[in-house]
Amino acid sequence: MILVALGVKLFVAKNAEKAEFIRHETLVNEAMECLGAADWKCAENAVRGLLCDAPHDTNLQLHLAGILFEQERYEDCIRLIDSLGYADGDFGFLKKKSAQLIREIDELGVERSMHFRVEFEGNPSKSDVMEALAVLEVAYDSLCNLFDFRPENKMSLVLYRSREYQGMGPRPDWVAAIFDGKLRIPVEMMHYREIYRPVLFHELTHSFVRAMTRAKVALWINEGIAQVVDGSRTQNPRPAGAPPSLNSLIEPFVKEPSADVAERLYWYSQKMVERMLARNPDFVHFREFIQSLRTMETDEALLKFYGVKTAQLLDEVK
Hints:
Layout lengths: L1 H35 L3 H14 L4 H13 L3 H11 L4 H20 L7 E5 L5 H22 L7 E6 L17 E2 L3 E4 L6 H21 L5 H12 L28 H21 L3 H10 L5 H9 L3 H8 L1
Parallel strand pairs: 1-2, 2-4
Antiparallel strand pairs: 3-4
C-alpha cells in the first residue's frame, strides 16, 4: 500500500513538472513570436510571465525595458531601470534615450499621438512633425476602414536626416523612405507634398499588413498590396529587363543595389497582386487571405483563396 502511495506521488510530481515545463516553453515561444512581430503588448505579457519565474534574469529585464520604450512608455522605462539599479550598457542607453525623447517632445510642443510613437533626428521643425502625423492619422483611419483592422500597438515613426537612422544595414542610394518595422522618413521629404503623401500612405500600409499577419508575409505580397492601395504606380509601364526570380521576390528589396532591378521587383509585385484580385475582386475575401497568412504558408493561402501559387502568378505577369 505504501509503495502504491509513493508511486502515485511520483506520478503526480512528474506530471506537475512536465506541465510547468510546457507552460514555461509556451511563454518563451510566445515572447519570441511577439517580439519578432513587434507586438509589444503581447510581448510584455509574456516577458512579465517569464520574470515571475526568474525575477533576476538580466536579459528578461532588458527586454522588458525595451518593450516599455517601444510602447512610448518612457517614464515607465526609466523607473524600471532605476529600480533595478543599472546605469551602464543597454540599460543606460535606454534610460538616456527615453529622457532625450521626453525632453525633445516637450521642447517641440508636440502632444503624443494615440497611434504613433515618434522619434526624430536632426532637429525637424514642429510643422514637419505635425504634418507627418496629420497625414499618417488620416491614412491610419482610412486603412482601419479598408482592412477592417485596428492595430493593437502604436506604430513607430522615425523622421531622420542622417543615413545612420535609415535602419539596420547599408542601404543603396535609391532608398529613401522605408518600413523595416518602423516607418523611416527623411525629413527633407516633408517639403514636397506631392511626394510624401503617397509615400506615407504606402509605408503605413506595410505596417498594417505586418500587424495583420504578425510579420508572416512574403515581400512581394506586402509590396504589391502597398502599391495597389496607394495607387501611385498603377500606370507605370513594364520596366525593361529580365523578370525577377521567385527568390528575389521574397528577399528585402532594399538590399538590391541596382535601382533598375528594384524597379522590376516592385512592378512585378504589384502586377502579381493585381492578378490575384482579378480572380476574386471581393475585398472581404482579400482581407481574409491576408489574415490567413498568420497561420498558413504563402502558397497554401494562395491556393485556398485564389486557386493559384506564386510561380503561376509570376508566369502570368511575365
